[in-house]
Design brief:
CATH superfamily of the largest domain: Glucose-regulated metallo-peptidase M90, N-terminal domain
Strand content: 5-15%
Strand order of the largest sheet: 1-2-6-5
Helix content: 55-70%
Length: 277
C-alpha cells in the first residue's frame, strides 16, 4: 500500500510539472510586457518594418508584446564581427512573430537561436549525381536548421524589411521554414489546425507547385518567385513571402492558395494594404 501511495504521489507530481511550468512561464511573460513599450523600439518598428506600419492597431499591440517575449526567450548572436543591436533583434523578432500572431502555438517551441551575419555568408552544400558526391561552399542570405537555428544576413533583412514593393523577405522565408520543420520534416506542409485541413492543403499546394515548375521551365513570369520551384519546402516559404508582401497580386492570381494560407496564418493581409497611404 505504501508503494502504491508513493507511485500515485509521483504520478501526480509528474502530471503537475507541465501545468506548473506553464504558470511560471506565463508569469514571466507578463512581467516582460508589463513596462511601457520603449519609444525607441516603436520608432524602429515604424521606420524599419514596413508590414508593421500597415497593421491594424489591435495587431500592432499584440505584435509589440510577442516581439518582446521572443527577444527575451530566444538567443540572438552576431557573427563575423556583426554588433547585434536591440533594434536589429526587434526587426527580426517582429516579423518572425507576424507569422504566428493569430496562431495558438505562436512561440516557435523548437527554435533556440538566431544567428546574424552582417551580409551574405557561405555554407557547405552537398550535391549528389549518381555515385558522385560533391561538396562546395554556397553563398546564402538565410538558412533554417531543423535543430532550432535560423541564420540571417543582416543587410538583406534590413533592405527587405523596410519596403513593401518586393515580394522577398528573408525573415518571413526562413521562419516559414521553421514552421514547416516543427513536425520534423521540411516538406512544405506545416502542422495544420486539424486533419480536415490536410486534403485541401495537399491538393492546392501540389497543383500550384507543379504549375510554378512549368512556368519556370517555360520561362514565364508569375506572381510567385521562381525559387519556389526548387522543392515543396521552398514553395511554402516563397508562398508565405508572397502572401504577406504581395497579397493583392496573390489573391487575384491564385485565390484558393491565398485563402488556404489565410486559414493557416489566421488573417487576410490584403485588407491591410487597403489602408496604405
Amino acid at each position: 500500500m505504501d508503494i502504491l501511495l508513493a507511485l500515485a504521489a509521483l504520478v501526480a507530481l509528474l502530471a503537475g510539472i507541465p501545468a506548473g511550468f506553464r504558470a511560471v512561464r506565463e508569469a514571466r511573460r507578463r512581467r516582460i510586457v508589463a513596462p511601457p513599450f520603449p519609444a525607441e523600439w516603436e520608432q524602429t518598428l515604424q521606420n524599419d518594418v514596413a508590414l508593421f506600419r500597415i497593421l491594424p492597431e489591435e495587431l500592432r499591440k499584440r505584435l509589440r508584446d510577442m516581439a518582446r517575449i521572443f527577444i527575451a526567450e530566444k538567443h540572438f548572436e552576431g557573427l563575423a564581427g556583426f554588433a547585434l543591436t536591440d533594434a536589429a533583434k526587434l526587426v527580426i523578432a517582429s516579423q518572425a512573430c507576424l507569422l504566428t500572431l493569430n496562431r495558438k502555438a505562436w512561440d516557435y517551441p523548437r527554435l533556440k537561436t538566431i544567428l546574424v551575419y552582417p551580409d551574405s555568408f557561405y555554407s557547405p552544400q552537398t550535391t549528389v549525381d549518381g555515385m558522385l558526391v560533391t561538396e562546395e561552399l554556397s553563398e546564402r542570405l538565410g538558412e533554417s536548421w531543423g535543430r532550432g537555428v535560423v541564420v540571417l544576413a543582416w543587410d538583406t533583412v534590413e533592405r527587405e524589411s523596410a519596403h513593401l514593393g518586393s515580394s522577398r523577405n528573408v525573415v518571413l522565408h526562413e521562419f516559414a521554414h521553421q514552421l514547416d520543420q516543427e513536425d520534423g520534416d521540411p516538406d512544405g506542409t506545416p502542422i495544420l489546425a486539424g486533419l480536415a485541413e490536410y486534403p485541401d492543403w495537399a491538393r492546392i499546394f501540389s497543383r500550384e507547385f507543379v504549375r510554378l515548375r512549368e512556368e519556370v521551365r517555360a520561362n514565364r513570369g508569375g506572381v510567385l518567385d521562381p525559387y519556389g520551384a526548387t522543392d515543396p519546402a521552398e514553395f511554402f516559404a516563397v508562398a508565405t513571402e508572397t502572401f504577406f508582401k504581395r497579397s493583392k497580386q496573390l489573391k487575384s492570381a491564385i485565390p484558393d492558395l491565398y485563402a488556404l494560407l489565410g486559414r493557416y496564418y489566421g488573417y487576410d493581409p490584403y485588407e491591410w494594404f487597403k489602408t496604405e497611404a
